[in-house]
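Components:
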Amino acid sequence: MSGAAAEPTFIKAVLALGSNLGERNDTLCAAVAELVDRPEVRLRNVSPVVQTKPVGGPSGQPEFLNMVLEIETSLPPYALLEHCQAVENLHLRVREVRWGARTLDVDIITYGGLRSDDERLTLPHPRAAERAFVLCPWALMDPQAVLNGEPVPALAANAPDFAGVDYFADDDGFHVSAES
Ligand SMILES: Nc1ncnc2c1ncn2[C@@H]1O[C@H](COP(=O)(O)OP(=O)(O)OP(=O)(O)O)[C@@H](O)[C@H]1O
Ligand SMILES: Nc1nc2c(c(=O)[nH]1)N=C(CO)CN2
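Structure:
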């Protein structure tokens, strides 16, 4: 009998992060570290951070910072969802108003090629294809990305909130350029 345990299968997944309350950039940085701080999750790629006008929800809420990550994970889909929600809870995420302001939101955009209609975990994320706040950072991270058979950069350019997305410069004046 061989003593070597079989290497688990790792599945590529795309996560979208958003924050519009508190120290938004610090929260996103901490969340990336927390999401990948376990052996079942490996970080593959990170998008620039973008500043975005709120889409939906109560009027007058602050602008968001948004970004996306590509990971590979051996967690099954619902375990990945629980992990994402646990990281949201570390940042005292409260759920009071639909699309209301939040310290941290972590959505699963894709999990391999899995498709699911379950309300608890719909895949790909049911609103991602029309959200420039997800598609723009994703296109910057991976210009070849495809969602539902469509190129992500084209979906981004056609999304209704495209004009509300801008690059984000942090307090040190760091500014991500489209050429970087
Ligand atoms: N792909 C997905 N990623 C994350 N949550 C999902 C997904 N599909 C379904 N859900 C469910 O959506 C519920 C509500 O999530 P959440 O409070 O983050 O919504 P929201 O961010 O306000 O709105 P939206 O779903 O439009 O992004 C979660 O409890 C979760 O079970
Ligand atoms: N700009 C922006 N708007 C939103 C966001 C978000 O992350 N960024 N998240 C929402 C619910 O997930 C609803 N609206």
